[in-house]
Design goal:
This protein is α/β, with parallel strands linked by helices. Helices cover 38% and strands 24% of the residues. Bound molecules: guanosine-5'-diphosphate and zinc ion.
């Protein structure tokens, strides 16, 4: 299991479980590599099993925290003769990336757990943004993972020291690495941080060079991403990929869609500011709920017509709004399902009492 980030800490916890008598002979240690609609892909020394939670685990579960998430170490039992497993317990977590959501229903969304190092990635050109880096740092500290700041595309920058100085001023004591996926500068340092089965995740806006960095860390070999096809409830095929990658040189990388969404939410806060012109325009639309299509008195359409607002800029504004609306809908659906479940569990235990 070393390959998937098993270390002394997990070993200790495992011995404790053995000591408690919680473990039976048929249970082995596994790590959750993918979460998909109450099913989990779990890698173990004996293979990779599509797993579900045991009835006892589900009965104990109330919060999102009580369910497995990508990165979790679990005790799992193989169903005889099948490539399937049953998860009995979750080992205590060392770090949790989660997003608290506003509103009355959703409380928490688990993004990734047991991340040792989180690389906060920003590039040494146009994308460099110290405020954003500050927010990433806060997110990292909240999670319990150790942040390392990675400044990418050093080959495009003549004065990386100036950037490093700025970063130092907001991130005392945090390691700062300057790298280039093009020339290979700094890649060895990143790889060496991941020795000893360390688990890492990346946080950084689109375009800063995260995929290129991952490929560079993987030694130039393109990541082999195993595609799994699973039927969703409506019988459609949805394609998902492995979200936890064991790196050839040691260490593990967690890359989940949730991490990308987390990113988007993080950036949204600053987007509000950067689309201030559009917000100001829409405030002077005739209708409060103007959708800026063909409504009369639409200030945005007027601005587009006379060139005061560029089409491209408005298009990226709309794209962001759509993405956010999508995430909100998705979160609401999850919230309602969680609420129903919680209610069911409570009434069940009420009947028993
Ligand atoms: P991601 O969206 O964060 O995954 O970013 P990508 O890895 O897809 O990179 C975005 C763009 O930046 C691509 O055109 C890359 O070729 C380029 N890029 C990434 N890393 C470097 C680098 O170290 N140097 C240079 N010059 N370009 C880079
Ligand atoms: Zn309008």
């Amino acid at each position: 299991m070393m390959k998937y980030g098993w270390n002394d800490h997990q070993q200790e916890q495992w011995l404790e479980l053995q000591h408690d008598g919680t473990l039976t002979d048929s249970m082995v240690a596994g790590r959750v590599t993918l979460e998909h609609k109450h099913m989990y892909r779990v890698v173990t020394e004996e293979g990779e099993w599509l797993s579900v939670c045991s009835g006892a685990l589900l009965h104990r579960a109330y919060d999102r925290q009580d369910y497995p998430a990508v990165g979790d170490w679990v005790t799992v039992e193989r169903m005889p003769g099948e490539e399937r497993g049953i998860i009995h317990a979750i080992l205590p977590r060392t770090s949790v990336f989660s997003r608290k959501t506003a509103g009355t229903t959703v409380t928490e969304q688990l993004i990734a757990v047991n991340v040792d190092i989180v690389f906060l990635v920003t590039s040494l050109n146009d994308d460099f943004n110290i405020r954003r880096l500050e927010r990433y740092l806060v997110a990292a500290y909240d999670s319990g993972a150790v942040p390392v700041i990675v400044l990418t595309k050093s080959d495009l920058c003549d004065t990386p020291e100036l950037y490093v100085d700025q970063v130092q001023s907001i991130a005392f004591g945090t390691d700062i690495l300057t790298v280039s996926s093009k020339t290979g500068e700094g890649i060895d340092e990143i790889v060496s941080l991941l020795q000893d089965g360390k688990t890492a995740a990346l946080l950084g806006s689109s375009g800063v060079g995260k995929s290129s960095l991952v490929n560079a860390i993987c030694g130039g070999t393109t990541m082999t991403v195993q595609t799994i096809r699973e039927d969703d409830a409506k019988g459609r095929h949805t394609t998902t990929h492995r979200e936890l990658i064991a790196l050839p040189a040691g260490g593990v990388l967690i890359d989940t869609p949730g991490m990308r969404e987390f990113q988007l939410w993080n950036d949204q806060e600053s987007m509000d500011g950067s689309f201030a012109d559009i917000d100001a325009l829409s405030a002077s639309c005739k209708f409060n709920d103007c959708r800026h299509h063909a409504e009369p008195g639409c200030a945005i359409q007027e601005a587009l017509a006379d060139g005061a607002l560029e089409e491209d800029r408005f298009a990226s504004y709309l794209k962001l709004q759509r993405e956010i609306a999508f995430l909100e809908r998705k979160t609401n659906v999850q919230a309602q399902a969680a609420e129903r479940k919680k209610w069911k569990a409570q009434t069940k235990s009420g009947r028993k009492a």
